[in-house]
Description:
Elements: E1 11-16, H1 23-36, E2 40-44, H2 45-48, E3 58-59, E4 70-75, H3 77-87, E5 94-98, E6 108-109, H4 113-121, E7 125-138, E8 144-149, E9 152-157, E10 164-170, E11 173-186, H5 194-197, E12 209-217, E13 225-228, E14 233-239, E15 243-247, E16 251-255, E17 260-275, H6 280-288, H7 294-302
Parallel strand pairs: 1-2, 1-4, 2-3, 4-5, 5-6
Antiparallel strand pairs: 7-8, 7-17, 9-11, 9-15, 10-11, 10-14, 11-12, 12-13, 14-17, 15-16
Amino acid sequence: MPAPAPARFPRIALVGRPGSTDAPGALSRLAHMLQGRGHTVVLEDDTASVTALPGCPALAASDFAGRVDVAIVLGGDGTMLSIARRLAPAAVPLIGINLGRLGFLTDIPVARMEPVVASILDGRYVEEQRTLIAARVERIGGGTEECLGLNDVVVNRGALGSLIEYAIEIDGRFVFALRADGVIVATPTGSTAYALSAGGPIIAPEVPAFALVPVAPHALTHRPIAIPDTATIAITIQHGKDASVHCDGQAHFELAEGDRVVLRRAAYRARFLHPDDHDYFAMLREKLHWSETPERLGRRQQG
Length: 303
């Protein structure tokens, strides 16, 4: 006799990390557990193309709205960034199983995924809603292109090696000119990614701010700044023939002199479901060794 359909999250989509050798086995384990609980399970179509599972039909991510109650992502943070941008407009919540390295967004260890996922699906979870950046490239010769960033939008130089000259405006007001390798505009989610390595601040997820972080600026006076996420940021390429813009390191557009990149808070947010004991600051300590003294860090590495 089949298990009764669960009241919470009856329809679940599984998304696997492309090319991962660990994903097929983990997907099979998870699908078996979910089906045993009475959930309807579908596979995101790209996942199904490499990992077919009995009783799990394929469904395109663009069709999840209204047909999927939650998506479970098995992979690294890159996999989560990609699917989160696609599902944010549909408000489909996401659960992350870590098959990558750090696992800031995919925070559930694969070894414990069955009991932890079952607990979340039973209603024992905390929900986070994360801001996205909507980027629009305005070409000097006419035309526009658009992309989304959950982590960040980066405007930087390419392989030729010359500095780029930028003009930065906020809400239509000139703020500063910059000669640098690049400039990062990061959400709180992305404040622990590339922006952190460039000297930017860590911004807690609930803080409504963007970090504007120069990359290798030519002048010592340029420093990162946090600005309200209600602001509109415009970055104009004043000089530099090898510039480009990158959204989460996954969507790329070449830029010419005179092109502008206009950034705003997106109209929707990504939804993440975490175990009910989720602690952002504990994760910083665990994943980045944040606040560790050299003595403790040395003992931990030796142990």
